[in-house]
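Researcher: I'd like a structural prediction for the single chain below. Treat it as a standalone chain; there are no partners to consider.
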Amino acid sequence: MFFDGRNDLYGQPIVSEYLTFMEAKPGWREVAEKYAFTAALVPAKSALSAALGSAKGWRLSYKDAEALIFTRAN
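Model: Treating it as a single chain, here is the predicted structure.
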């Protein structure tokens, strides 16, 4: 797990990285590399699901109406 919603516990730098990743802002790939993510559980209708869906090195492993799971293809 990378982030569980306790913003006050993790501090602003981690919260900023989390938002960069979850909102698929510029630099989201670098955050994924920094933390060596191998999987991501994301909302189905999100910027990150669209980004991971078209990103090289990620594949869709599961989906339903609410969420998608992407895993590293390598």
